[in-house]
Inverse folding.
RNA sequence: GGGCCUGUAGCUCAGUCAGGUAGAGCGUCGGACUUUUAAUCCGAUGGUCGCGGGUUCGAACCCCGUCGGGCCCGCCA
């Protein structure tokens, strides 16, 4: 008998490390700190949001859910970094935005359809640049089952929430400088000061600090103007490396996932955790995650237009599949988002998982440890994929592939439901299924739908496919010309014509279908032909058979 | 220069934290369903765990080195 040194004899705890999903590992870490948690996420609304940003939010959401499942209180918050400045005139912006560079995203007008500043909405409704990009993202979040408490950063500055930290920083610029220089290994300019005042035009760039008398930071700007910035009234902002740890404090953040850029040694989390202590609070438990890139196109980037937006993704993919993508990948794993075949496989894997009974599987005592890990991981990933936290993910029992076929073959939804009914599906379409079909149709209509999945009826006979047919199979075509010509143009009628052609040619149905698939789809096999042909133009199909016979 | 992630079956990846007989899904191939919604079911196929050393009774896993891919250390959150 083999003994495994790693088997501990004590009773299995909820936190049996070897059997944990990544979200549970984080929950365990949080449990060591207490049972009240605020999980933070944060994004700068500088441009179009993309599914890369979804990972940030979903990672946080899943940690919060895991903490709640383990019996803790946990809330998800979303810091909207609208106090950050506009960095440059992005390609989607009009050149007039040049004047706003350095200005805070929450204090400048949103671009209109032509990329020009929309002053009307800005002046009348206060509709800002940040709002413009945030709004659709929030809608996508709602669909995907994430409703975080929003913490707009600019408003936090104006409300004086940064006052305490800003005072500590401005009172101790040398201590801050020491931390940043030592931990990040870079040298700060001599005139560096831990506060960025707004200049005479409202920009955070280009000011020189001339003096500090709490609560005022005195400055001169690039326009030759000078003035004072009150650090308690949001007349400026803390530099990012201080801004972040300051937010941890007054928002009482206990956990925050962030992209790998922040997580690098000497990066902003490293300096942040020391600065947090200086501010007087513990840094949150970190979790570094990898980026999501687009398959074959590299990293996602708003400015290059190389993105799939959350709303676009949701038109194609059911939200639970998007959640599953994140839940099923360890945060350290880079995700390649593939809107083609990868998506089909992902969705079908999801469907297969929903059909499994994990509890029963786990009862098998002969399972290897490895197997147990797999089951546990899959089970938790599936739970986290549910849009609503409490609900069990339900199986549609219709694979993505199958749905893709039906949606292509049947232009009318009713026919799809009828077909499902006939093949043992649900008597009435569930709302979930209707939703699936709607998204599937959008996907098929989009450029993202993989060619491999597309059903194409040949316009003319494919030479190569036809050459592979033997004489017997060719003979079928002769009879097919006749039987099909007389057939009633319905699925049943066409099926009957196939049979009749087979009988006339005295060959088995296998050869009939071989011949048909070669002719109609240039393939050896395929989806059931008759219903597809029934939806095609009769004249075109007969013409196709004719041409084939002539050549 | 410093650091992080990553390399396992044709593909996507588990497994590395706590060393104990290389795993899953997809794909491919074959069969069944007396023929079909790329379906389903069964079976088969498949890997010098990037490479080289070391530690060990035993290494995908730990240590050292090396090669390849991605990335960060410039307030770009």
């Amino acid at each position: 008998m083999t003994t495994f040194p790693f088997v501990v004899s004590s009773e299995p705890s909820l936190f049996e490390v070897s059997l944990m999903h990544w979200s549970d590992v984080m929950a365990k870490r949080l449990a060591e700190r207490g049972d009240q948690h605020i999980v933070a996420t944060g994004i700068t609304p500088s441009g179009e949001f993309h599914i890369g940003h979804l990972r940030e939010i979903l990672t946080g959401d899943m940690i919060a859910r895991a903490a709640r499942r383990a019996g803790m209180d946990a809330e998800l918050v979303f810091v909207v970094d609208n106090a950050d400045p506009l960095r440059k005139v992005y390609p989607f912006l009009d050149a007039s935005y040049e004047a706003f560079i350095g200005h805070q995203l929450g204090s400048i007008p949103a671009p209109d359809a032509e990329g020009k500043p929309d002053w009307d909405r800005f002046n009348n409704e206060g509709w800002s640049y940040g709002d413009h990009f945030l709004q659709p993202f929030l809608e996508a979040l709602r669909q995907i089952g994430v409703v975080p408490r929003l913490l707009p950063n600019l408003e936090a500055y104006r409300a004086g929430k940064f006052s305490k930290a800003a005072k500590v920083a401005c009172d101790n610029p040398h201590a801050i400088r020491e931390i940043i220089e030592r931990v990040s290994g870079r040298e700060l300019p001599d005139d560096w000061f831990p506060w960025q005042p707004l200049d005479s035009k409202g920009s955070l760039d280009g000011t020189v600090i001339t003096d500090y008398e709490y609560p005022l930071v005195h400055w001169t700007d690039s326009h030759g103007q000078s003035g004072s910035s009150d650090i308690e009234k949001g007349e400026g902002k803390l530099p990012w490396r201080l801004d972040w740890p300051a937010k941890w404090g007054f928002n009482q953040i206990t956990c925050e996932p962030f992209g790998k850029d922040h997580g690098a040694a000497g990066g902003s989390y490293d300096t942040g955790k020391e600065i947090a202590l200086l501010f007087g609070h513990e840094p949150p438990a970190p979790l570094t995650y990898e980026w999501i890139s687009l398959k074959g196109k590299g990293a996602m980037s708003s400015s290059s237009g190389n993105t799939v937006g959350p709303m676009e993704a949701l038109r194609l993919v059911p939200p639970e599949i998007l959640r599953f993508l994140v839940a099923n990948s360890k945060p350290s794993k880079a995700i390649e988002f593939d809107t083609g075949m990868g998506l089909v496989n992902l969705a079908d894997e999801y469907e297969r998982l929903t059909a499994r009974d994990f509890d029963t599987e786990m009862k098998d005592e002969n399972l290897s440890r490895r197997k147990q890990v797999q089951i546990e991981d899959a089970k938790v990933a599936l739970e986290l994929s549910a849009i609503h936290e409490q609900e069990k993910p339900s199986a549609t029992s219709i694979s993505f592939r199958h749905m893709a076929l039906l949606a292509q073959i049947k232009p009318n939804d009713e026919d799809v439901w009828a077909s499902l009914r006939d093949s043992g599906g649900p008597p009435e379409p569930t709302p979930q299924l209707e939703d699936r079909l709607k998204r599937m149709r959008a996907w098929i209509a989009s450029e993202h739908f993989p060619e491999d999945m597309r059903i194409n009826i040949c316009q003319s006979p494919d030479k190569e496919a036809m050459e592979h047919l033997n004489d017997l199979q060719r003979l079928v075509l002769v009879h097919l010309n006749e039987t099909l010509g007389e057939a009633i143009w319905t699925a049943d009628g066409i099926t009957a014509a196939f049979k009749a052609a087979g009988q006339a040619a005295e060959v088995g149905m296998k050869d009939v279908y071989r011949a048909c698939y070669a002719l109609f789809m240039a393939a050896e096999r395929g989806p059931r032909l008759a219903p597809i042909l029934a939806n095609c133009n009769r004249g075109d199909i007969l013409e196709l058979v004719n041409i084939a016979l002539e050549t």
Observations:
- The two ends of chain A are 72 Å apart (CA to CA).
- DSSP finds 24 helices and 13 strands in chain A.
- Confidence is low (pLDDT under 50) at residues 1-18 of chain A.
- Residues 51-69 of chain A form the longest helix (19 residues).
